[in-house]
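Why do we care about 3D structure at all? Because function follows from shape, and shape follows, mostly, from sequence. That is the central idea of this module. The next example makes it concrete: a single protein chain, its amino acid sequence, and then its structure expressed as tokens.
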Amino acid sequence: MVKRIISYIFIAALLFVAVFFVHQNFTDVEDLQYSLSAVYWFHFISTLIIYTLVEGVSWKIPNQAGYAYLASIFLKIGFFVLLFKATVFSEVVLEKEERISLIIPLFLFLIAEAIAVSRLLNSKL
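And the structure:
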């Protein structure tokens, strides 16, 4: 269990560093109405929490791990909207590049945690 969590932390950190710096270099960060690094940090930390939570639930109650994952995804989206509500619900319309820059880290870390959780759940079968 601990070995899988540490390996996931390493993979997520590698993904964070690689994609964040590429994204930052291709995007004009000064023109964004929000902090790109804050968005990446939120998704990075939340994906670590979600994977650790699902790993713990899978260890204690293996049949409920999938439900824990689904609930944590909804909570993640809710906390994102709560923390970044000034950006998401602002009266100023975000440009296309800004909207895409908000969605890239969401899908990136969502795909990474979905792959990791599916491997975890399939290994418990």
